[in-house]
């Protein structure tokens, strides 16, 4: 099947003529980028693997800070001005949030392709990509609005401090390859997967910016887009393991490989590189003429690379480093110098011997000794009697219940954990075609009077039997961290849904497909107004899915949804 190559959003590139303000907000502006070690923003007639780009001498629109688009988006700072387009950090005054904006004249040769790429990328709706929020042609301008992630860090900045840990590099190649495989299934490609296009959020999730629009802005196309993106992922993994760019030229703040030696395995560049990840990088980079390690076949598509990552043994995160407590310091009082005369420097301290008090030898002293002895004997007798009585009581208790009750050695009963309602971190819409995703938070806001409701579908209860809804829909609940889940209740929009509850594996990071939720907590069933599941044993997971495959009938059409989701779990 022929591959369709389009190109996506979030492309701020500081290469070329860089404005003074371009150094700010690195988490949302590309660095000076090159493609496979070559300057990607310099016009060249033809790239390798059938990749082409066109040079455009047009000038970027002359705008300034404070200018408003659609009476809503206020431009704040220009981060790129290149090839007739410019990229800005802006503020959406309507929603009071930071956004990114790409601007170019409506008569720019690439304006039509940029609009088409932005709209195609927006339809994907995959949370692993920086989302396109708007794509407009207005007043002789074309502009694309996208998310701005101020708390994210570019891979360029991460690699500036050193190579990534094996677990972090494993997460990078796993998440990026899975995301790009999903994009290529929808006919979208990136063609500029560089360290500046990869962002790591504060939760450890990797987000990809520049799907389709990045290449469209620069006029980059490819005859083999899957091969181009796969090789780019291999280069990212190689750089993450070695802190070296796998080509001869320096790029993205990384030193290239020595000239005239070709592509050498990562473990020959840096000692201690994880062997499995190094071989995986070589298999992805084999597209550029390298020889795959152990004669394993090269990975030529993101799908093949994602499967190769999944087949690897799981790499666990490093154990936290143990810090030894500081050495115990004796105080002056504990050292026994309290009450001693001070010593002068250079003079050894004289040991003061305190004479013990004289023994009680008088008649009153002997009486006192006898009284103390009697009290001690009485106390010992009472203690022995209480101990024996306690042992007898324990023996009776054991004989009455068969010895099933036990107490801890400290005398305290074992701690019992009771199920409590867990706090939901966030929610997202499940399915390739996300329905009313802006309302999904209403399904976990604690208010049963509001909820997430689907569109109307005609003809069939299974979402009109449309191909884009063949996996159904539903709501993915993110608990924020792995919890021991014991129960889930979902108040449905109407009775008559066909639905079930599924859970992701405990080590899942960003599940989006049905195969990412392998644990069936309930069977697929017709529901009443409430879908409830009680588990015999707690399930450890972070992500839960209320999966809907068929909608109830409402006035001759089919419509459904979820008013509220509550999750119970064991809490210390």
Automatic annotation (TrEMBL):
UniProt-recorded Gene Ontology molecular function terms: protein serine/threonine kinase activity
Q: Where is this region: Disordered?
A: 1-63, 318-357, 396-420
Q: Where is the composition biased (Basic and acidic residues)?
A: 39-54
Keyword annotations for this protein, in alphabetical order, are: Kinase, Serine/threonine-protein kinase, Transferase
Q: Sorted alphabetically, which InterPro entries does this protein's record hold?
A: Galactose-bd-like_sf, Kinase-like_dom_sf
Biased composition regions of type Low complexity, renumbered to the chain: 12-32
Specify whether Kinase is a keyword of the entry. yes
Q: Which residues cross the membrane?
A: none
Name-wise, this protein is: Serine/threonine protein kinase
Organism of origin: Streptomyces globosus
Organism placement in taxonomy:
Bacteria, Bacillati, Actinomycetota, Actinomycetes, Kitasatosporales
């Amino acid at each position: 099947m022929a591959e369709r190559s389009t190109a996506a959003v979030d492309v701020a590139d500081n290469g070329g003529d860089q404005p003074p303000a371009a150094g700010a907000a690195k988490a949302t502006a590309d660095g000076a980028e090159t493609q496979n070690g070559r300057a990607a923003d310099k016009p060249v007639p033809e790239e390798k693997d059938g990749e082409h780009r066109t040079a455009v001498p047009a000038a970027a629109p002359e705008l300034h800070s404070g200018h408003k688009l659609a009476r809503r988006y206020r431009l704040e700072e220009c981060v790129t001005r290149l090839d007739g387009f410019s990229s800005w950090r802006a503020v959406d005054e309507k929603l009071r949030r930071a956004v990114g904006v790409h601007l170019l004249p409506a008569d720019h040769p690439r304006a039509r392709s940029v609009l088409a790429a932005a709209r195609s990328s927006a339809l994907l709706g995959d949370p692993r990509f920086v989302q396109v929020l708007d794509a407009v042609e207005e007043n002789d301008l074309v502009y694309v609005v996208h998310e701005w992630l101020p708390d994210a860090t570019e891979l360029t900045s991460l690699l500036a401090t050193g190579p990534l840990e094996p677990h972090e590099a494993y997460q990078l190649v796993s998440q990026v390859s899975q995301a790009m495989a999903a994009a290529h299934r929808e006919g979208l490609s990136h063609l500029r997967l560089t360290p500046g296009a990869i962002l790591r959020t504060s939760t450890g999730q990797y987000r990809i910016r520049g799907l389709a629009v990045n290449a469209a802005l620069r006029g980059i196309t490819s005859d083999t887009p899957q091969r181009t993106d796969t090789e780019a992922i291999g280069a990212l993994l190689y750089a993450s393991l070695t802190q070296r760019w796998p080509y001869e030229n320096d790029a993205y703040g990384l030193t290239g490989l020595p000239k005239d030696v070709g592509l050498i395995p990562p473990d020959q560049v840096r000692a201690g590189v994880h062997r499995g990840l190094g071989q995986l990088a070589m298999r992805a980079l084999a597209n550029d003429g390298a020889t795959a390690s152990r004669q394993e076949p090269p990975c030529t598509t993101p799908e093949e690379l994602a499967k190769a990552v999944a087949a690897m043994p799981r790499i666990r995160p490093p154990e936290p480093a143990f810090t030894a407590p500081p050495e115990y310091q004796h105080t002056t009082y504990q050292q026994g110098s309290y009450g001693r005369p001070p010593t002068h420097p250079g003079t050894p301290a004289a040991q003061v011997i305190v004479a013990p008090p004289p023994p009680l030898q008088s008649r009153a002293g002997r009486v006192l000794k006898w009284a103390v002895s009697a009290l001690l004997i009485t106390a010992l007798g009472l203690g022995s009697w209480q101990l024996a009585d306690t042992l007898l009581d324990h023996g009776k208790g054991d004989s009455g219940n068969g010895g099933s009750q036990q107490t801890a050695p400290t005398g305290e009963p074992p701690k019992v954990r009771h199920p409590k309602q867990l706090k939901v971190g966030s929610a997202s819409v499940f399915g390739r075609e996300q329905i009313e995703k802006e309302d999904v938070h209403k399904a976990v806001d604690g208010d049963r009077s509001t909820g997430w409701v689907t569109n109307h579908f005609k003809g069939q209860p299974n979402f009109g039997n449309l191909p884009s809804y063949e996996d159904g829909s539903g709501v993915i609940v993110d608990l924020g961290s792995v919890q021991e889940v014991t129960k889930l209740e979902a108040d449905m929009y109407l009775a008559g849904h066909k639905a079930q509850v599924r859970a992701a594996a405990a080590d899942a990071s960003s599940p989006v497909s049905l195969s990412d939720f392998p644990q069936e907590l309930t069977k697929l069933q017709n529901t009443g107004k409430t879908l409830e599941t009680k588990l015999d044993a707690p399930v450890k997971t972070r992500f839960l899915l209320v999966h809907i495959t068929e909608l109830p009938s409402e006035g001759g059409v089919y419509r459904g949804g979820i008013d509220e989701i509550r999750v119970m779990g064991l809490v210390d």
